[in-house]
Amino acid sequence: MGISSLFPVQVAVWHETIGPGGFERDICVNSPTGSGKTLSYALPIVQILASRPVRCLRALVVLPTRDLALQVGSHLCFFVYIASIWCTVLKSSVFTFLSLG
Fold first, then answer.
1. 42 within 8 A of 48, measured Cβ to Cβ
2. Burial profile 64-91: b = 16 or more Cβ within 10 angstroms, e = fewer
3. Judging by beta carbons within 10 Å of its beta carbon (0-12, 13-18, 19+), is residue 52 exposed, middle or buried?
4. How confident is the model at residue 15 (pLDDT cuts 50, 70, 90)?
5. Which of 10, 75, 83, 93 is most exposed by smallest CB count within 10 Å?
6. Mind listing the pLDDT tens digit for each residue in 22-33?
7. In this predicted model, which residue has the larger pLDDT, 97 or 57?
8. d(CA 17, CA 70)
9. What is the number of helices (H) and of strands (E) in the chain?
10. How far apart are CA 71 and CA 65, in angstroms?
11. What percent of the chain has pLDDT over 70?
């Protein structure tokens, strides 16, 4: 992918997850379009999962739209393929509303 340096959001997430003093936890990344959010959470996910021998669900990325899920899924699956980790994209175009009355 030709990555030579990280964007500010990527550096911030790296410090919070796998960098010095970082630890595993849930995070929410909010940054403008094109700022590097996908890579900011994809790389820590891949690095952490690559070191685990247990093969079960270890990461879940929830996105608001089908198109965004497909876009993020293609990037994430590229990196996990390199690390020999399974990746899949689950999507739905059907919304279910519950009536509680």
1. no
2. eeeeebeebbeebbebbeeeebebeeee
3. exposed
4. confident
5. 93
6. 666 777 888 888
7. 57
8. 24
9. 3, 0
10. 10
11. 79
Q: Measure the CA angle with vertex 80, ends 74 and 86; round to 5°.
A: 95
How confident is residue 101, by pLDDT bands cut at 50, 70 and 90?
very low
Instruction: Identify which of 20-24, 34-38, 90-94 has the greatest average pLDDT.
Output: 34-38
Phi and psi at residue 41, to the nearest 5°:
-100, -20
Distance CA 23, CA 40 (A): 15
Contact 55, 48 (CB under 8 A): no
Alpha-carbon distance 74 to 68, whole Å?
10
Which region holds residue 35: left if phi is over 0, alpha if psi is between -120 and 50, else beta? alpha
Q: What is the mean pLDDT of the chain?
A: 77
Q: Taking the alpha carbons of 9, 15, 19, 23 in that order, is the dihedral positive or negative? A: negative
DSSP reduced 3-state for 81: helix
